[in-house]
Write a structure and sequence with these properties.
Deoxyribonuclease I, Chain A, alpha+beta, five-stranded mixed sheet, 11 strands, hydrolase, single chain, 2 domains
């Protein structure tokens, strides 16, 4: 058991240290994802060392202390996403008719054929805007009945798992489909007009993940996110960036995105709202996001029911409050982070 504890603990140290290496290769980036899982495994490791602790053993003491330090480090990383953390997006105190926008973000899983389940979940949540990701021709055809309630729509069905469908009850203006980094990875850029007449710039995105067999580097994902960050930063309108970002809320890349864009994460101070993987409870991460400019406060955020996809849908309801700009503070980049962002955008 002593040897097992040493090997087990050593692997946990490696898995914790790998994401600290600022390299785009997947082996370094993929271990950004399971920080909560690593925390649980660290606590389990501490328990094992306590149970099988050998008195007068320096090795046992070193590993026990090292695991304790590792646990504290991992706790600090995920703490902002617990209900004990500071909220970046404040809660609405009073409803303002005509100034709200609700979104449903759902990666449907291209091979999933439970179209009716998806439509039923949309009908139940009744959002103003629906963003369907990983949608191909079949999904496009089988969800056309959404037009009955959603007058405005943008369709980019693809057979490469990166198709996008956007449906909106609210008027859309100045809509375009962009291929910011890769020629077959689209993003939808559009202005959503709130009932009060206020335009909101919406970016619907789904960059590629750093995984073997698809994209061994995070370079393309990071670049696309940072290019969208630049667009959000330069925009004079309230902004929402939403979609499957193929990155966790607590990663260095996501934090860099928030710092460069000036956007806020409504998850912070509220919970993880893990959206992937719906089929494996222990291996779940928050991959589907909606980040907002400081013009919004939060009415509601929740995870919806799965309908056969490997992702849970995420629902958010936000209220436009222009004075909130003075109440909510974004993360700010330092000189090194600005340089890092420039380097990432220059790659490929």
């Amino acid at each position: 058991m002593h040897i097992f504890n040493i090997i087990y603990s050593s692997l946990l140290f490696v898995f914790t240290l790998l994401p600290l290496v600022r390299h785009d290769y997947w082996i370094f980036r993929v271990f950004d994802y399971p920080r909560l899982q690593k925390l649980v495994l660290n606590i389990t490791g501490i328990g094992l060392w306590i149970i099988f602790y050998q008195r007068d053993s320096i090795i046992d003491l070193v590993f026990l202390v090292a695991l304790s330090v590792n646990t504290i480090f991992l706790t600090t990383l995920i703490w902002p996403f617990t209900p004990f953390g500071k909220k970046q997006v404040l809660a609405v105190s009073k409803s303002r008719p005509g100034q709200s926008i609700s979104l449903m973000i759902t990666n449907v899983l291209e091979d999933n054929d439970n179209y009716e389940g998806c439509l039923a979940e949309i009908a139940k949540a009744d959002p103003d805007v629906v963003i369907l990701l990983e949608t191909n021709k079949n999904w496009d055809e089988q969800t056309r009945k959404l037009e009955e309630n959603y007058t405005y729509h943008v369709r980019v069905p693809l057979e490469n798992t990166y198709g996008l469908l956007l449906y909106s009850k609210l008027k859309l203006e100045d809509t375009s489909v962009k291929y910011l980094v890769e020629k077959d990875i689209p993003s939808i850029h559009t202005r959503v007009i709130l009932p009060c007449g206020q335009p909101v710039q919406l970016y619907a995105v789904h960059p590629t993940p750093p995984v073997p067999g698809e994209n061994v580097r995070s370079t393309e994902r990071d670049k696309e996110l940072l290019l969208v960050a630049d667009l959000a930063k330069a925009c004079n309108l309230p902004v929402i960036v939403a979609g499957d970002l193929n990155d966790v809320a607590w990663s260095h890349t996501t934090e860099l995105f928030l710092k460069m864009s000036g956007l806020l994460d409504p998850r912070r101070g509220r919970g993880f709202f893990n959206s992937f993987n719906a089929h494996h409870p222990f291996m779940r991460f928050p991959l589907d996001h909606a980040f907002t400019s400081r013009h919004f406060k939060l009415k509601q955020i929740k995870r919806l029911n799965n309908f056969g996809s490997d992702h849970f849908p995420i629902y958010l309801n936000m209220q436009f409050e222009p004075e909130a700009v003075k109440e909510q503070e974004p993360l700010r980049p330092d000189a090194d982070e600005i340089e890092e962002a420039q380097e990432k955008k220059a790659k490929i």
